[in-house]
Amino acid sequence: MRSARTAGIVRTVADVSVLVVDDHAVFAEAVQARLNGEADLGPVWVAYSAAEARTLISRHRPAVLVLDLVLADGNGLELAGYAAVESPESKVLMLTAVTSTDSVIAALRKGARGWLSKTVDADQLVQVIRRVVRGEAWLAPDLLGRILSELVVRPAEPAPDPLASLTSREREVLQCLVDGLSRAEIAARLHVSANTVRTHTQNLLAKLGAHSTLESVALALRAGLRSSDI
User: Fold this and answer.
1) How far are the Cα atoms of 96, 108, 114, 137, 179 from residue 148, in angstroms, in the given order?
2) What is the pLDDT of residues 138-159, one digit of tens each?
3) CATH for 168-222, options being 3.90.660.10, 3.40.50.970, 1.10.10.10, 1.10.357.10
């Protein structure tokens, strides 16, 4: 990465703030210096760890995050997920030496808008940052070809089971709710007290993110649970 700094840069209100996250200080500061040489980019902050990056993301909500994948105390994928919650307007661009297709696909699923090798020309980095800010996505043509080939041959991941977090007893209570039983009827079927049924019901509602037993039944039906007709 070639670094350069242009003196006398006049900033405007349209500046694009950037956070560079890399635990290699020399590289990170070279990127910072190069980006500071562009009139439309800045301020440019640097974080040398995932912990420092989280603080700066929450404090500044940068327009663009330039993330290395591998950090001493975390990784760029975790930071991309953190930014999606703390600073959803931030655009994520991965700048890393890692080239595995699995890592690229994982980053894209985390919301990354681009993936660049650390060997990229500095001018291209600047151009890709601008494209990402405009809402575009960017992958090198050879990398894009590998990703598309991988996605074509890779089977789709099965949808997660929304009921997987329930205990066996909570699933039994949910089945009773699907069967249309009242709390007293559930207690009689499961040979427990009504208070125990209420506790299990509250727990399963919390785990499912449901606000009522009716909503929990609807979720259960969508997940494939059916009336046992007992």
Assistant:
1) 20, 12, 15, 14, 45
2) 888 888 888 877 776 666 666 6
3) 1.10.10.10
